[in-house]
Write a structure and sequence with these properties.
The protein is of the alpha+beta class. Helices cover 30% and strands 23% of the residues. The protein has 19 helices and 22 strands. The two termini are 30 Å apart.
């Protein structure tokens, strides 16, 4: 395998974006395409469209039927896949790619995906979106049996499970590995013969199937990555489905026991791009519906509805339409801030929000303002936004949030703070209102969110979505977390499985 690990364009230590620290960091994005002579160029374009899902690093692995080729770098896609020589160094008609924000294992070159290994049956590359909730236990058991890990990413566990499986065919070994893991995953994998897409049994993490020509198929985290290359959206990969594409055609199977799907509801609130489709539904329309439901539940007299850009904009439009209160861009976003390598001193952190957002005084002065945002995590940015709007002359500032209070961390591929760092887990709404300095603060109810997304209240006995960040009801076992609080003895045989 050839490997072009390039040096980041800036040599200073990477500092996470100072102005996104009060948001959930997006998970990762995956893309894969087969049977196309320009597969690498198309993969890079697809990763551009998925950049919002991971801005820490990007990687691509291609296969020319004989050899695999890799290029991985810290930073944005545009910074590292920006020349014809790079594209030409990744030949082949099948390619997979990954954009990353570290949720497990931390940052660094060794954790950049796709992961690749030369197995007994040939080369095998894996790009994974999600988190495995039993990765630490599996890793310990694999290491005890002789596996040598090259990264700290939970995704490498999948490679080792495939490598140690006793099944003969690579597809069967991959299925065997997937049956051992827990948590949320959308995986695109590449061998010298096949492109494979797989989704966890509950469908927590998203994955869609597209088509570019008669035999050129695509897997992607979102449909916006299909749009950018002019591909046709066929359908979502179903929860628990594994699709293999090779010279014999496209083959679907479901290797897991059937379960009721529980896709992540926060994809509708924040993560997915508004121009994407999820489960065939327009994300933009759903977010407007959330704003409409929010307005029905949380009305107040005001002069303006102002979004906190950009994530609060569709919900603010819906809120304004429902109430008849004028919608205005009372906060202007600077889209050219990008990443920063400035040392995050307290003074810089304080000024940072003004680099990204600036109050539009001409619209705000003397007005009663409703600010609409998608969520509150730690509350630090909300404090600065409310204060900025007041400093611009607003008479009153009322916050309306297009999701329920975030009370619990995510263990399925979203980098969230620990529970005691989440504002809603340690304060009442009244306390939160005082903390952020607003005149009032209200959140959409969990049933209101469900009505906006699926036209029905939440089924408390069998919820339609994974909403653990709002309810604390996790749809899978959290083996590693449970091991921290109540250690148990689990045998290697039970976790890795018997020989075939």
């Amino acid at each position: 395998m050839t490997d072009r690990n390039s040096t980041p364009l800036k040599l200073e230590p990477f500092v996470p974006h100072l102005f996104e620290e009060d948001k959930f960091h997006d998970e990762c994005g995956v893309f894969g395409i087969c049977n196309h002579p320009e597969s690498t160029a198309l993969t890079v374009l697809g990763l551009h469209a998925l950049q919002h899902r991971g801005q820490e690093a990007a990687g691509v692995v291609s296969c020319d039927k004989k050899q695999f080729h890799s290029h991985k770098s810290l930073g944005h896609v545009a910074d590292n896949f920006n020349s014809q020589p790079v594209i030409e160094s990744l030949p082949g008609d099948s390619t997979i790619g990954h954009v990353r924000y570290s949720t497990a294992g931390g940052a660094g070159m060794r954790n950049i995906q796709p992961m690749f290994a030369d197995l007994s049956g040939g080369g095998f590359a894996v790009a994974h979106n999600g988190n495995l909730t039993n990765a630490r236990l599996l890793r310990q058991l694999l290491v005890s049996k002789g596996s040598i890990f090259q990264s700290t990413s939970d995704s490498e566990v999948i490679i080792h499970l495939v490598a140690t499986s006793t099944y003969q065919k690579l597809k069967d070994r991959f299925i065997d590995a997937l049956r051992r893991i827990e948590g949320g995953f959308a995986i695109v994998a590449l061998s010298d013969k096949s492109l494979i897409g797989a989704r966890d049994p509950l469908g927590i993490r998203p994955l869609v199937l597209g088509k570019l020509s008669d035999n050129s198929y695509i897997f992607a985290s979102e449909t916006c990555a299909l749009d950018i290359i002019g591909a046709e959206y066929i359908r979502d990969v179903e929860p628990g489905e594994l699709i293999t594409i090779n010279d014999d055609g496209i083959h679907s199977m479901k290797p897991f026991p059937p379960q009721k799907p529980r896709p992540c509801i926060f994809e509708h609130v924040y993560f997915s791009r508004p121009d994407s489709l999820t489960q065939g539904k327009s994300i933009y329309k759903v977010r407007k519906n959330i704003g409409i439901e929010l307005a029905k539940e949380c009305k107040i007299k005001a002069d303006l509805v102002v979004p906190v850009p950009d994530s609060g904009t569709p919900a603010a439009i819906g809120y304004a339409q429902e109430t008849g209160i004028p919608f205005e861009l009372g906060i202007i976003r600077n889209h050219y801030v990008g990443r920063t390598f400035i040392e995050p001193s307290d003074q810089i952190r304080h000024l940072g929000v003004k680099l990204k957002h600036n109050a539009n005084r001409g619209e705000l002065e003397g007005k009663i303002v409703i600010l609409v945002d998608d969520s509150i995590v730690r509350g630090t940015t909300s404090i600065k936004i409310v204060d900025m709007v007041r400093q611009a002359g607003a008479k009153e500032v009322h916050m309306r949030i297009a999701s329920p209070p975030t009370t619990d961390p995510c263990y399925y591929g979203v980098d969230t703070p620990e529970k005691d760092k989440l504002l809603a887990s340690r304060m009442s709404i009244e306390e939160m209102t005082k903390y952020i300095g607003a005149d009032s603060l209200e959140f959409i109810s969990i049933d209101g969110l469900y009505r906006a997304v699926c036209d029905a209240d939440r089924d408390s006995d069998s919820p339609q979505y994974c909403d653990a960040c709002f309810t604390g009801e996790y749809p899978t076992t959290l083996t590693d977390k449970e091991q921290d609080t109540a250690p148990t003895q689990i045998s290697f045989l039970n976790v890795i499985g018997p020989k075939s």
